[in-house]
Amino acid sequence: MPATVYYADMHSRSHEDSKIAKVARLCDAVGLKKIVKKNDLTAVKLHFGEYGNDTHLNPSFTRQVVDKIIAAGGKPFLTDSTTLYSGSRHNAVDHLHTAYLQGFAPSVVHAPVIIADGLYGENDLPVRINCKHFQEVHIAAEILRAPSMVVLSHFKGHEMAGFGGAIKNLAMGGASVRGKKDQHATHVNVDKATCVGCGKCVRHCPQQALSLHEGKSRVDISRCIGCFECITVCPVKAISIDWATELAPFIERMTEYAYGVVKGRQKRICYLNFVLNVTPDCDCVAWSDAPLAPDLGILASRDPVALDQACFDLVNQAPSLDPKSAENKDLDKFTARWPMTHGAIQLSYGQEIGLGSRQYVLEKI
Prior knowledge:
By secondary structure, this protein is an alpha/beta fold. The protein has helices at residues 19-29, 32-35, 59-71, 92-101, 106-109, 141-145, 166-174, 177-184, 200-204, 229-233, 243-262, 304-317, 323-327, 333-337, 344-353, and strands spanning 3-8, 41-45, 75-80, 113-115, 124-128, 136-140, 148-154, 156-158, 162-164, 189-190, 210-213, 216-219, 239-240, 269-275, 297-301, 360-364. Strands 4-3-2-7-14-15-1-16 form an eight-stranded mixed sheet, sandwiched between helices. The chain has a two-stranded antiparallel ribbon with strand order 5-6. Strands 8-9 form a two-stranded antiparallel sheet. Helix 3 (59-71) links the parallel strand 2 (41-45) and strand 3. 50% of the residues are buried.
């Protein structure tokens, strides 16, 4: 049966039709009041953005969701988990500072921030899923403990996953550090002919798995955790994985983790995706590139697969703002930008394992 996806476009000529008003209406349409019970400690799962990124989710939108949770009788808190890679969110203290610097202070968003997997990303709980890659997954404790949850996702590109929406937000953001290691579960390779020996990858590696030898980067496979930060920062793209064999399993593992976050409590979770500033990169990078498509709207659903599918379709039906997409009209905009990726695996595999349905009905509000 097709899932309902509610859609608000970007047109507005009055205060009653502003973006923040549309966020509030989407919360009502998706049935947030039925999800949140009185005195529920309600997780608002989002991505605060790496420091330097300026196209992450707008705190003003988050505040509208928080106010709706409070009106429903819940006690909201904003949450995310620590990162594998070094940066401004590698531990809970740095992550909190980054959240506040990005505008997610309690005085702005009307809710506290709690890092879900503890000081160093070690606080998790097991969830049995019995899927192809994992029998059990390790989910950030405070995300799993929350009786209800609203998942807010900035829909954009991703160099490995193709795109990031609700599924990726659940998977990587809902996992502890060892859960993230489970998902990546591969190591990188260095093309010495391409490497210019700048050392940027060495400086960014959180495991000291990379070093310079005779002016070229070298990877210690025994130390590499596959966080892919080196792939992101390499200016000449000399670092990669075996795309032909490693990419699809990585996306499947990620999707299984998303399933682990919601398993057994699907009726207590709803999702909003913001198809604004559709950048080619994840908000994990400390910059924001030009968008691939125009701002298209805000969507909401109780089904994360249907929601991501609807956003994926909207982006690919929209005019391209990226020269690479214009040159490769037969590809989706994300694969045109990142040719080795296949983001739609998230959708097909998500449907296969019961995370949601790719079939949807778009209802404009």
